[in-house]
Amino acid sequence: MNYLIIILALINFTAPQIKIENAWLRTANKGMNTALYIDVNNLSSKDDELTDVSSNIANTVQIHETFKQGDNMGMRRVKSVTIKGNGTFHFAPGSFHVMVIKLKEDLKEGDKKQFILTFRHAGKIKVNAVVKKD
Amino acid sequence: MKSLLIIIVSVLIISGCKSRFDKSEALGKRNFTLISQDSVIVNFPGDFNGKPMLLGFIFTNCPDVCPMTSHNFQLVQEEAKSQGIKNVNFVLITFDPARDRPWVLNEYASVRDINKSNFKLLTGNQEDIYALMKKMQVVAVPGDTTKTSDGDCIYFFTHSDRAFLIDKENKIRREFRGSKLDVADVVDDIRSLE
Lengths: 134, 194
Prior knowledge:
The complex is a heterodimer of chains A (134) and B (194). Chain A is mainly β.
């Protein structure tokens, strides 16, 4: 019985807690900026927090949100984003996005680029994002 | 009773004849000297007389909203072409002329496969661009600023998200949110102005 509990605990410990889907980023030129969009699914019942995103394709990568102020649209940096337990957080056009600043290369439709997402509890997760024209 | 019927029928006829457009506002006589992505001097709006035009404002360092506007313009262009609409122009003007020089606009168009046959990206000197923005009531204020890992300071704008449909006589006929426009609806508008 004790073995069963230990095995179940290990399975729970090693099971992925965060699942990333629909990762894509926009075409852009070397030296310019673009945005990464993802759906973050938290498979655990416990809240988690995305605290950092990195990639070797750009000089700087940050989490930002687009906001509407009257008739105007603006952006601001956010330090982290909370992913509710058993919830999904959408990084989407016109909303939260990962800013990819000063690209080191051109991004063309169909390219695939790797990012590393760092979560407070789930740790580091690699994701491959496809480049689209959208 | 007969009078009431006449009034009701008249109202129905008048409302049925109402234009699909909510505006008819002249752009004015001033021509702005701008420059295209191919470094060709363009008189705006004079050079676009005679065809309806979808007009928007962007800056190429924008990672989120402006690319949505640019992509929407491309979708409208593709849909208009597929419907056989030839007499239309698409124009995106930068509100960041200091950074968006012609070659920058050209690269922006190239990486997005923008069909430049009837699609122009325009820049110019700051005085002309700002005067044009004022005329069109387009706002762009440097806002969010990011320091990159190599010490560069990159600024972004808090800005209007306005696009305009202009008829062949250079009158503004409709306004949209550039990043959210309804492609089919805009194509219908263009067809009715062709």
